[in-house]
Amino acid sequence: MSEAESRQSYIPPDGPAAAPSPAALAPRARGTSEGTKGRPRPAPSPGAAAGTRLPRRAALWLLGGAVAAAASVASPARANPGPRRAGRVDELLSRLTLAEKISLLHGAADPKSLGQAGYVPGVPRLGIPELRLADGPAGVRAKRTATALPAPVMLAATFDPALARAYGEVIGHEGRALGQDVLLSPMVNLIRTPYAGRNFETFSEDPLLSADLVAEEIRGIQAEGLIATVKHLALNNQEKDRTTIDVRVDEQTLHETELRGFEAAVAAGAGAVMAAYNKVDGVYCAENPKLLTELLRHRWGFDGWVMSDWGAVHSTGPSLAAGLDMEMPSGARFGAALEKAVRDGHVPEASVDRAVRRILSVRDRFGLLEAVPRPERDAAAGARVALRVATAGATLLRNEGRTLPLTGPAARSLAVIGPTATLPFVSGGGSAHVIPDAAARPLDAIRDRAGAGATVTYALGEDLYGRPMPATEPPAELENRTVAAGATWRYEGTFTVPEADRWTFLIHYSGTRPTVTVDSTELFPVRPGVYDFFPGGLESHAPDGLLVRRTTVALTAGAHRLTVTASGGSLGQRFRLRAISAADRAEDIAEAARAARAAHSVVLFAYEDATEGQDRTSLALPGTQEALIDAVTAANPRTTVVLNTSSCVTMPWLERSAAVLQMYYPGQEGAAATTAVLFGDADPGGRLTQTFPAAEDRHPMAGDPLRYPGRDGIQQYSERIHVGHRWYDAEGVEPLFPFGYGLSYTTFGYEDLAVERAADGGLDVTFTVRNTGGRPGTEVAQVYLGPSPHLAALGVDQPRQLLAGYRRLELTAGERRRVTVPVAARTLSSWDTARHGWVLGTGRRTVRVAASSRDPRLVTEVTVQPR
Ligand code: BGC
After folding, report:
1. Which pLDDT does position 54 carry in this prediction?
2. Looking at ligand 1, which residue's alpha carbon is closest to its atom 4?
């Protein structure tokens, strides 16, 4: 199918959008005291109203001509002044042979790998350098250590696009310093289901917030000369069946939810886009012309290149024709098969040239068609940003009776509990895992901060890595066994269990996974051809780096047969076999309760270990942690639970805890940030970017397998535009914690709301925030917009309220600040499927200024009129 032929269906043709002219506002809204009339419109805060500053080519169809004309042009080239030579791409194209061109369109093995995910060889004959592509979202993932930044979901919790930019700059700089050219990040897929394994790698359930943050992060990455790859286009919102699931979504939902972040990324000048594994409306994303050509190229004017996700290409000609430019990480479809297809006349060479031109043009824009000097890594600068983000994103969910900050006796007598107090949970699993230079243990940071006069005790609470096996008959060394290369070690014997019990066995190993059987059950089977091991960030590696697999079996009292077969392979191997009985678990909990009872206050670290490649199967804290929290809070109600989780968890124990601090995966500076917030050296400035459900059956995905995880390979986004907090509003479901929620150590008052029409057709929402408490603190003021009666009359579905803007504010005690949050005309519009375009939401609309989606502080109404 040609590009022209394929321009139909859910993505409409280019041209003036169907939206009427932007809003005119009726008389000034109620509640106004200090307006912004006569004052210049504030410079576009990166924090407010995403999508307002789109490049002209994108804005034309998004906003309608009048608004687009006013939009500035963001040139990605400006951010990356590389050594360019006019006509270099044309010249190269004319000199490259077909085989050379094709070699630029797919990945290959890297002869000098730096540990990165992808590699494309250069063409030395013409001076084209090789290209290295590294993950990822929370820092550069390569062989060498790098700054492990907090997970993107924690960055998002700051509601601070300026921090997103700083975050991007760190990764951009380090990527260049660590020998990389392309970053496989950011990920901007929306948090749609609380179960999704990669929720920590992305930003938010809210389209506007995600769009703001992704745009600024990309600007930061690319300002340092590293090419950013926004991923995964599109609708890769879960890991379950991610390589096969066929997502069915209506046009309005697509445009108003998932696509907004990608659109903002393109507008910010992203050099590359990664096509997702899944299908959309029956077609794999990597061969989907509606996504890769109609949307990206024709609607958004994308001029970068599209690469596949790793192993996501299913065809040669159709993928290339659909708009895929690069296959990663190998050339299974775009290598020899493509060359043959061209030589046989099945694929026009012009299609190859088009893809090569797109890739070379971006490389040229970044100066990456020459060998350029690389900067030195600045580890100290990276650490500073990591600390700022982890502190700013710390989200306080509960604080009964001012449990926090820890002061006086609470700071002098503490029990610290939980495995992640001594094994810092730095980074999530999968391709986003980053190996830091170092990461302090929270327990040590707490002890340092508490000082010499304080008593800080520690109890493990839950054993993640197991105890040495009980004695076997005949005796065997199972704790520290090495097997030489080429050798095989076999053991057969028995061990005895005193009483019927559930035992968890763990194998820690390097090299080939040993085969272990208990009685006749194989404990850690390797299934040939099945990649079933997606390392998480915590449990899948022992502290010394060995891989860990675990399994739980019920054992009767008495002797059990054990066999172990370990093979040294070509490199030799090391392993240890370990176990934890239910009795061990009970003892760990009892010991924690004793420690809790003996201290004035408790800080309990709880974890949840999510990873790419698999979704969570429960929202509960895993393992015995709920029982641990029950026992500890019963022993000492002054218990603060610190959560190192990927996103939401259910909290049946909430009422029994005194405080809950959400720290996500906080990166290498997590210990310092956590301690600073616990002791009040910093205010917890984070707010939730994802609604926390009250129970496993009270969230948007509950009870409808077609919605999640899909049925018979198909999935329907039947919640439509009501993603995240919008669903809770639409269904009247009470969440555990709403979107935008988070406590400070101080209090804030809101006053004097004024709403005016802005020059670009949007709104200026102006109000005053005052720190009404006795200490400095951070507030995230949020603006929500009610539905338009005009759109309702047209039958356009609308959220009860949508996030229209926000502003993060740091205020000293008693300080008041007047702020204006701009709301773009685009944010006032909905996608009208009948007209295939954005339609301005005119008529009387509610404007709420709120401290969370469920905590409105100021409310007014405005009339949005067509111009
Ligand atoms: C992931 C991508 C990642 C790539 C390379 C894939 O499995 O989905 O996000 O960039 O691997 O590591």
Report:
1. 27
2. 310
